[in-house]
Amino acid sequence: MVIECTSSKGANANTTADTARALTGIAHVHHLTTSQAEAGFNDFYGTRKVSSSWILVAWPRSVRGTVLSEYHGKDDEQVVDELIAAAVGALPLLPRPTTRAQSASQVPIQQVVANTSSPEVGELRRKNQELEQRVTEVQSDYDELYENLTTTEHLSAKIAEDRDRYLHSLTDFLSLRDDPSQWNNTAAVLSRAKGMCSNLDFHPEVETRLGRLQFSPATNQRILGNLVELNNLAARLRRGDIEPHLFNTYCTEKFNFAPSVSDNAINKFGSDYTIIWNDATVQLGPHIRCNEARIYFYLDVKQRRVVIGHVGGHLRDKANP
Prior knowledge:
With 321 residues, this protein is an alpha+beta fold. Helix content is 48%, strand content 16%.
């Protein structure tokens, strides 16, 4: 029991309604609000037990009766802390559990369902299998449609590119037909081929290698026609339609073609077959026979490019030193 004399304090009492709420179930809070109540309490004990200068706490005991303690403080903090601590210390110990609580079942719900043989579960299982099969079929159809769409877009782009290229080539060939005298100049035919064949890389020394060499109109026509056809294969190589290791095979089908030159020719006349491409020394090998003329090129496998290194006469070898 907590007792405080408030006759001379009025609203400035140390213990309040908040004190009573904090000590709910632990102690009762009482105020002696008049001087008569204070005097009567002290007369009962025959000595001064209560005063406005302190808070009195009565501790009940079963053997020796009540013990009184005085708390001299400006607030109720010490009183509340000690009473709560005393109440907690007086609580009996909880008994230790003798058996462990049963944990929840660890059996997966799928296994529970699988072990259940009711007609409802069987029907749900069947419908689930049908849905899974349907989803697989729809996904397969979608993948096939997407692949077809990609192929269609690729083919459409290829057709449009081929159409523009062939239209440009046809225009040039028609102009040559209307003026046959243009076939008489091999250098002019080579220059026209460079403008027509955008997928071929012409080495800067091609014109120098040709020099003043002139071929017959028939050979010049063969040179231009073969360069245009080689340009078409180079376009497919760039797009990925033709793999580099198969390029010579396609050339064999299209041209009078030799995929390489002999080691003897390289060893004896290496300068004839050597060009600088991308700051590296490379060797010409594959070549197309155009009557008495030749077109030598280098295949850049890494960049998928066809480099024209020589248009002119047959380069030196064992048979043509």
